[in-house]
Each structure stands twice: as C-alpha cells, then as structure tokens.
Amino acid sequence: MSRPVLARRDQVLRGGQPLAFGVGLLVALVVGVVLLMGSGHDPIRVYERMFDASLGGSRAWSVTLNRAVPLGLAGLAVAVAGSMGLWNIGAEGQIMAGAIGATWVARIGEGWPGPVLVPAMLAAAVVGGGLLALGPAVARARIGVNEIITTLMLNEVALRLVQWLIHGRWKDPDSHGFPLAPMLPEQGRLPNLFERAHVGVVLAGVVIALFGLAASRTAWGYELRVAGSSGATARYAGISLQRKILTVLVLSGGVAGLAGGVELTGASDRITEGLSNGFGFAGIIVAALALMRPSGVAAVALLFGAVQIGGQSIQTMGVSSSVSTILQALILFGAIAAGVFSRYRVEMVSGDAAEAVA
Amino acid sequence: MCLAGTGWRWCLATPRRLSHDPGAWLVNEASIIGLLEATVSFGALLYLAALGEMITEKAGILNLGVEGMMAMGAVTGFVVALHTGNPWVALAGAVAAGAAVALLHGLFTVVMGADQVVSGLSLTILGIGLAAYLGKGSVGRPSGAELSSVDWGPLSDVPWFGPVLFQQSPFVYLAVVAGVVAWFVLGRTRLGLALRAAGESASTADAAGHSVAGLRLGAVATGGALAGTSGAYLTLSLTPQWAEGIVAGRGWIAVALVIFGAWRPGRVALGALLFGLTLALKTRLQTFGVDFSPILLSMLPYLLTVGVLVAISIRARNRPSPAPAALGIAYRREER
C-alpha cells in the first residue's frame, strides 16, 4: 500500500514566489471564466473591459494607482509586523482610526491653509492608527496576549466608533437627518498628480521604499528579522524583545492609519463607515503574497488595485462586482498552493516506508 | 445591568440614566419578554457558529473564515429554499456549503500546512464574494419557505417561559442539541479525546495511532457545517431574506465567543446568551428609555473578549491557558 506525502525539497525552487504568484493569477482567471460563463457572460469581453478600465491608458492607470495606495500601505502595515513574526489583523480598524484622527484635525483646523492642514491631518491619521494598535502592542509585549485576536476585535470597535461619531457628534446638521459627516474643506484634500491620481501615490511609494531600505539596509531591520526568527537569539544579542514588539506593532498601526488618512484626503469627500471597504483584510493578502517584503508589497498592491478597479468597471455589463473579490481570494489560494509545491514535492511512499520515516 | 468588575463604568440601565419623560418608559412585561426571546434567538445564532469554531480550534486549527462560511450558508440556504420550497432541504444545502468551503481551509492548512491566519481570512473574503455572486438574483425576494417556530403544545402557553423558550425557531433547539452533543463527544468519548489530543499535541495523537489530518479535517468540516447552519438561521428564520452583508460581523463575534467561553461548550453557551443580549438590546435601548448609544453597546462583545484574553494571559503565569496548546501550528509527520 502506498500513499502520497509531501517531502521537503532539498532546495526551494528558484524564482518560486513570482512563479507562485503567476500560478495564483492563472488559477483565479480560470475559475473566473467558469463563474462568468455560469452567469451567462462572455469571459473574454469581461476580462478585456477589466483590463481597459484598470490598465488601458493614463486615466485608467491613475484610478488604479489611487486604489493601490490604501492596499499598499495596509499591506506594508501587515508586512512590518509580519517581518518580526507578528500578525496585525487590525489594519481594517486602524485605517478607520486614522480617518477619525484626520477628520478630527480637519474639524479643529477649518481655516488652516492646505499645506498646513493636509500634513497635520496625515500626521493625526498616523497617530490614530498607532493608538488603536497601542493596546494590543502593550498587551503582547508585556503579558504575551495573542495579538491576532486583539487586533481583529478592535476592527469592529473602530468601525462602530466611526458609526457612533457620524450618527452623533459629527453628524452634518445639513444632512437632513442622514448619518453623514460634513464634507471635508477643499484645502483638506490631497492635490492631484495626473488625471485622477493624487499625491498620495507618491507618498505611499516613498513610505514603502523607506521601509524597504530600513528593513534590508539598517541594523534596525536586521534586529527585526533576528527577533522574528528566534526570540532566544535576539535576547543573547541584547535586543529588547519587549520594546521591539511594542514599537513594531504601533508602527504597523501607524502605517495603516496613514492609509486611512490618505484614502480620506485623497479619494473620499468625508469620513464614512465604508471608508475602509476591506482594505485592511486585502492588505493581509497583499503582504502574504509579497512574503512580507516591502518591494513585493508595492507590486502586489498595484495588481490588486487593478483587479478591484476592473471589478468595479464590469458592473455596467451586469456582472457582479463580487467577481473581483473572488478573484483576489483565489489569487492567494492559488499562490499558497504553488508556494507549497515550490518547497515540497509529492512522493509516493509505501505504508512501511511511511512508518520508517515517522 | 451593571457590569461589575470588568472595569467598565457603564451601568446600562440604572434608573439615573433612564429618561425623565414618562412616555419613554416602555419597560413592561411584553417588552421584557420580547427582549429575552430575542436574546435566546441571537444567542443561538452566535452559539451555532461559535460551537463550530470551538470544535475546529479544539483540534488545533484556527479558522478565521467564520464570517465567510456563514455567508455561504446563508445564501445557499436561501437560494435552495427559493427553488425547492422546502426549508429542510435548504438547511441541508447550507450545511453542505459551509462544510465544503471549510474543507478548502482544511485542504490548505491541514494537508498543505499553509498559514492558518492567511488561509482563514482569505476564506472570509472568498465566502463573502461567492455568496454575493450566488445571491445576486435573490436580493429582496421572499423565500416562501421559512422555518416557522416550533409549537410545544401546553409548554408554549406557560407565562414567560413559553414565549422565551418554547416558541422559538427550530434552529434554537438545534443549537441546544448541538451543544449537548459537542459537550458529550468532546469530553466523554474516545473520539473527543483523540480530537483534543490533535489540538494539544499532534505528535502524541499521531503516536497513539490516530490520524491527525483526518481528525483535523473532520473538525474543520464540522465547524463549517455549524457555521453554515448559523448562516441558514439568518436567511430561513431570523430575517427570512437574502442581502449582501447580512452576516454583519457576527462571524467575528463567534470567533470572540470561543475565547470568551474558554473553549468549553457550556461557558461558550453562557457567553452566547450574554452577547446575544447585547444584540437584542441594540434595537431596544431606545424603547426602554435608556439614554445610551446602541452603537457603543454593540462594541461590548469585542471589548469584553479583549478583556478576557488579557485576563487569561495574566492568569497563565500561574495556571495553564485554556487554549489548545497546538492551536495554529501545522503538523507534518515527516518533519516531526
């Protein structure tokens, strides 16, 4: 009797991750064809429209880049924590907290000129996101509370905080009773770059690049990786684990908060409960596909931005925008599977041999 | 209701906070019975999903896809009801759909050893997306096959207890049965012992001759089936309609409940009733004349769970954590 087992390859297949990513994309597109045909649509035409709307021309690129900004920053937030082996599942909530901070500044600084107001709003967004991560960070660093669940729970808390504010204190008196915050002042918006793209694209690119450099070229980044791979080694090397965990998780929250601030000032008129429409969760997929590396985060975020914008564009053809949500999840599942096979190979072993290995 | 000892200074219904307008005083027998009835209904909804997650975690697998599995159960139940007109067939479909998507998580985490956090969250995204895709043509339609409440004869007419306990949807009684079965199987049978061993120390379970992968896949599928049932409860009984986003974060409450209830069926049930009360109060605070934001109230389950997690970790210095020791860790016999 023989059975298949996964045996570790002596060497990880070269170029494994980009390859896995390609396989994931392929799997997603193939399943997408089935779904589209199932709902009576011509998959070629739908994919063509998705491509045109997201990457066909400068206007399309500008919209896609805008969308890649919150995805990339959220992905970076997850990757910063992930490079130390920590999970920040709370980017979704930290994005909301960042938007709360930025909106708060916009409310007190109504008459401030744009060059003062916008940076102040973004700074407040970083603080807001960092504050939401502070609790889980302290709990993890001091008493070892699992940060996965605490950050996850605070997502729902932050969402409700926004709901509470726009139903009450921040409700626009001119909104005819609707729970809507007032529009941001004109000088509280990010200036445009080209077509639809706003300055946040550059900002996000710079932040991601800075973290990429810090992670690969500085002692700080090195210590991070050491601390992530082995707590004991880190302690021998004199790295304070507690402080590292604290700073990394708060920093991660701050980056996610920045995503909220940029999304608010760049792509939204006002704070709404739908401001972070799953960016935080998509950021986790982005970071996972990028293997927690900042350079990869930028590339994957761009692709996911394109998939999301393409998904919106096909609604006019009567295709559910949920197809793009499904595609995003399938890219990851496909990539995980391919990633496993780049590290393992399937071997048939006989029952006896299996016992011997065990 | 004052939550003593939790550190919250929120006394939710002390007379001091009650409105002074006598017209707002709607606290009467009927409204309290209504509140308790809703508490039990919501509690059962949360309990079905939380119980599934608890069984999954007991075997060592963390599945953060509850929200997605519930959405799949909700949409499958509704669509099948729409086409067959038979709510029981619809329930079976929801159970199968929940188990099927859960097994995707099982395939990736148990068979391939992929990261459980990433796979589970992707399952949530996939489930919500697939549910929206499958339910697109059914939004706003009546299913025409609701599961009506069970009639327990004279028991249903008992004052107070009748309406609260004996005029409920079949799903409520299903939740009770599932809880008792889970308690018995996990704590009193060899299968339960093997399952818990797979979650505490997979290599020990393996050495004892159990198939760790088989146990874990079984637990994951059971968890998905229960989450699917919970989703079907939404669309076949509670709010007999399909709408995108109908699960509305209740899958996350289920994940929280497992921790809140310290991985024990009984305590999870008590937690489900408590969290169910917060859901039931949400729409009723104003009618009770309580001047407290229902939105802030709905934060309570999540904050309480964070509080419990912190308490568990502080206590863990002296006694072992109630969490399964091998939770979240992939097992590969060849790399033991």
What this model shows, in words?
The complex is a heterodimer of chains A (358) and B (336). Chain A is mainly alpha-helical. In chain A, 70% of the residues lie in helices and 5% in strands. Chain A has 14 helices and four strands. Chain A has helices at 16-38, 43-55, 58-82, 91-108, 114-143, 147-167, 200-217, 219-229, 231-236, 241-267, 279-289, 294-313, 322-343, 351-357, and strands spanning 2-8, 192-194, 197-198, 344-350. In chain A, strands 1-4 form a two-stranded antiparallel sheet. A two-stranded antiparallel ribbon of chain A has the order 2-3. In chain A, a hairpin with a 2-residue loop joins strand 2 and strand 3. Chain A is globular, with a radius of gyration of 22 Å. The two termini of chain A are 16 Å apart. With 336 residues, chain B is mostly helical. Helices cover 62% and strands 0% of the residues of chain B. Chain B is built from 13 helices and no strands. Chain B is globular. Chain B starts with 28 loop residues before the first helix and ends in a 21-residue tail after the last helix. At the A-B interface, strand 1, helix 5, helix 6, helix 11 and helix 13 of A face helix 4, helix 10 and helix 13 of B.
Q: List the helices and strands of chain A in order.
A: EHHHHHHEEHHHHHHHEH
Average pLDDT of chain A, to the nearest integer? 90
Number of helical regions of chain B: 13
Query: How many strands, which pairing sense, and closed or not: the largest β-sheet of chain A?
Result: 2 strands, antiparallel
The proportion of strand residues of chain B reads under 5%
How much helical structure, as a percent, in the residues of chain B? 55-70%
Integer average pLDDT of chain B:
88
Straight-line distance between termini of chain A: 16 Å
Low-confidence stretches of chain A: 353-358
Number of strands of chain B: 0
Rounded to an integer, what's the Rg of chain A over CA atoms?
22 Å
Structural class of chain B: mainly alpha
Question: Given the C-alpha coordinates, what overall shape of chain B results?
Answer: globular
* Outline of chain A: globular
Spatial strand order of the main sheet of chain A: 1-4
Cα distance spanning the termini of chain B = 51 Å
- Using DSSP, what is the number of strands of chain A? 4
Rg estimate of chain B, integer Å: 21 Å
